[in-house]
Amino acid sequence: MDQDAVFHLSQVSMARNGKEILKNIDWTVPAGRVSIVLGPTGSGKTSLLRLLNRLDDPSSGEIRYMGAPLSSIDVRDLRVEVGMVLQQPFLFEGTVLDNILYGCRLHGMDVDPAEITALVGIDEAMLRQDVSTLSVGQSQKVSIARAVALRPRVLLLDEPTSGLDPTSTVQVEELVSGLVRALGLTCVFVTHRIEQARRLGHRGILIIDGSRVEEREIEDMLSSPADERTRRFLNGELR
Predict the structure, then answer these.
(1) Can you tell me the distance from the alpha carbon of 66 to that of 80, in angstroms, rounded to the nearest whole number?
(2) Which of 55, 50, 52 is nearest to 70 (CA)?
(3) What is the pLDDT of residue 89?
(4) 42, 55, 82, 178: which is deepest, by most CB within 10 A?
(5) What is the C-alpha separation between 237 and 239, in angstroms, rounded?
């Protein structure tokens, strides 16, 4: 196994209600990079992401985190180290500050809110603002800030720009890239957008119908697909 791997999946499958969602996935997530999970809608991308912080567990196969079996790690401890940002921002009632500090208070951690807002580009004046008044783009930034406040090793993002306008999309992409550089984060970013994968990603895995099709450097995969299914996906020919 790669010594620099944060996650290593070996023959991982997952079934739900008798239907196989993921099929014998082998995958390595390298440290300190943006790994893209790419594929069409309904391919199993989100299901794969959810396995990484144990929102779901595989039906078979093994997932290792920092060399240890994922199933052996306390879920609360894991979710401090492996933060997750959902497709639609989910915020708790209250202020921006309440939300940013939510996980830190839960885990008894001290954090400087000003440091977090500076990291994610939120104006300090927003800290007392009720989250019900935020735009979708602002809400997603607060979701990212809440995850980053715990100082995770890994940040999982499930199509976090799907509901955003082009300007907010670019802002979130730039934010993610900046956090990877500033904090040395490992990032796993789910998307079905080819150009977004190209802009953000270092390495990528392509999932189609629950199966791994390719796992390569993202630019190589998109420029010179090694599998006919990849070519068809890139050309919009999958049916």
Answers:
(1) 14
(2) 52
(3) 87
(4) 82
(5) 6
What's the rounded Cα separation, in Å, for the pair 191 and 40?
Answer: 9
pLDDT tens-digit profile of 23-71? 999 999 999 999 999 999 999 999 999 999 999 999 999 999 999 999 9
Closest CA to 83 of 149, 163, 8, 165: 149
- 205 has a pLDDT exceeding 60: yes
Q: Which residues contact 221 (CB under 8 A, 6 or more apart)?
A: 38, 204, 206, 214, 230
Q: Nearest 5°: phi and psi at 10?
A: -130, 115
The tokens for 13 are: 């499958």
Taking CB atoms within 8 Å and a gap of at least 24, the contacts of 221-230 are: 221/38, 222/194, 222/197, 222/198, 230/206
Distance CA 7, CA 215 (A): 14
What's the pLDDT score for residue 95? 95
Q: Are 210 and 43 in contact (CB under 8 A)?
A: yes
* pLDDT (0 to 100) of residue 239: 64
Q: Which amino acid is at 198?
A: R
Q: What is the pTM of this model?
A: 0.93
DSSP 184-196: --EEEEEES-HHH
Report the distance separating Cα 138 and Cα 160, nearest Å: 12
The whole-number pLDDT of residue 169 equals: 92
pLDDT tens digits, 209-226: 999 999 999 999 999 999
* Residue at 201: amino acid letter: G
